[in-house]
Design brief:
Layout: H1 6-9, E1 24-30, H2 47-53, E2 56-62, H3 65-74, E3 79-82, H4 84-92, E4 96-97, H5 112-115, E5 121-122, E6 125-126, E7 129-135, E8 137-141, H6 153-156, E9 171-174, H7 180-190, H8 204-217, E10 221-225, H9 228-237, E11 242-245, H10 247-255, E12 260-263, E13 269-279, H11 285-295, H12 298-308, E14 311-312, H13 328-332, E15 340-342, E16 349-350, E17 354-355, H14 359-370
Helix pairs in contact: 3-4, 7-8, 9-10
Length: 373
């Protein structure tokens, strides 16, 4: 790498060490994942990296996994913090390359549950470095719900909320095809006769039931959200009181002293385990490898978890950040790992039942659902 730059990365085994930085690194990331203290000066894990490496960090925020895939297809980026419903698409599309973990010394500190996870490990090769993980929570307004709602039914089924008013126009749904899995997870508990084992592996009947539920939900939805700031504003100003969300928005609203809390419902939750992946044609591979190593520092891991409401991919991060605090990982759901159905790309050949509805159908059908069809 020190001598050949991108060419050396095509043959990871040849690279012996990370060379001099190229001056910048371009990252596609989820909102809140790459902070330099602009929103809150306490949350900054970029400035020190830039001073240490002379690699300027440039970030493009994406709101959905599909947007991340589109941006990586367009090119011009070195890294992407991809969730499991995008990572294998990027591998299959040859938009990312294997990471030489010998060039990432802190690899050994990563949670063993994540080191060989199937959403970024293909053919024994690691196409990235785990970053953060967590659940998609049910966020709600505590003025409306004096007691935490127990079920996702509050966003899927027409009903009156505890304040006596209908939920119509006061709930949101995620603006991404992967949300079909949220409906399937709810149906897995509500209608066991459907036989759903994995919310990402659905036969035709199970898939139809999930779409029917989402069509029932459509008249209730105030907005299909994908922008973290827009959703936060909707909870503050537009009368939205319940929605699937990320802990990031819960933290933002609570910091703004709004009556907001979240819950892990009885049916479980979908979730994300995000991997920082290296672009196949990364123009700044040395700075990229420097960032991959920096991203695994325990304090960085803990600070990101504190800001986003997520969990560190490096367990030592649970105790390394004063921002996260002594019990931050427990609060954010570290013990819920086995209860989370992590995002992954639906494929036609699936493990639980042989043949399933593939992702391209999810994508086109969910567009129709959002359009009221």
């Amino acid at each position: 790498m020190a001598l050949a730059g991108v060419a050396a990365l095509a043959l990871p085994a040849v690279a012996a060490e990370v060379g001099k930085g190229e001056g910048e690194v371009n990252i596609v990331a989820w909102a809140g994942y790459i902070e330099r203290g602009e929103t809150d000066k306490n949350y900054d894990w970029v400035t020190e990296f830039e001073k240490k490496t002379s690699c300027k960090v440039k970030v493009k925020v994406a709101g959905t996994s599909d947007e991340m895939v589109t941006l990586m297809n367009q090119g011009g980026y070195d890294l992407v913090t991809a969730s499991g419903d995008a990572s294998l698409r990027l591998v299959a599309g040859k938009k990312v390359q294997p990471v030489d973990i010998s060039l990432v010394p802190s690899w050994k500190t990563i949670d063993e549950r994540l080191q060989n996870a199937p959403w970024f490990t293909v053919g024994g090769e690691h196409y990235g470095v785990p970053y953060q993980w967590g659940p998609n929570v049910l966020m709600y307004n505590t003025d409306v719900f004096k007691e935490a709602p127990k079920s996702w039914s509050v966003v899927f089924e027409p009903q009156n909320f505890p304040d006596g008013k209908p939920n119509k126009g006061r709930i949101q749904a995620y603006d991404g095809p992967i949300y079909i899995a949220d409906a399937a997870l709810y149906l897995k508990a509500k209608k066991p006769e459907l036989g759903i084992k994995d919310p990402y592996e659905l036969n035709e009947d199970q898939y139809k039931a999930a779409l029917d539920l989402l069509r029932q939900q459509h008249p209730l939805v105030q907005r299909y959200w994908h922008d973290a700031n827009v959703q936060s504003d909707d909870f503050k100003n537009e009368g939205v009181v319940a929605s699937s969300s990320w802990p990031f928005m819960v933290n933002l609203l609570q910091a703004d002293k709004k009556p907001i809390a979240s819950v892990f419902p009885e049916e479980g939750a979908t979730g994300w385990a995000d991997t920082t992946m290296l672009a196949a044609n990364a123009a700044h591979p040395n700075c990229a490898y420097m960032w991959l190593e920096h991203s695994l520092e325990p304090k960085v891991q803990g600070d990101v978890a504190a800001w986003f409401g997520s969990l560190p991919a490096v367990p030592a991060g649970c105790k390394a950040s004063s921002l996260l605090g002594e019990n931050g990982c427990k609060t954010n759901g570290f013990d819920n790992f086995d209860k989370i159905s992590f995002w992954k790309t639906p494929v036609s050949k699936c493990e639980s039942q042989g043949t399933c509805v593939p992702y391209h159908r999810w994508a086109s059908d969910y567009i129709a659902v959002i359009g009221g069809q």
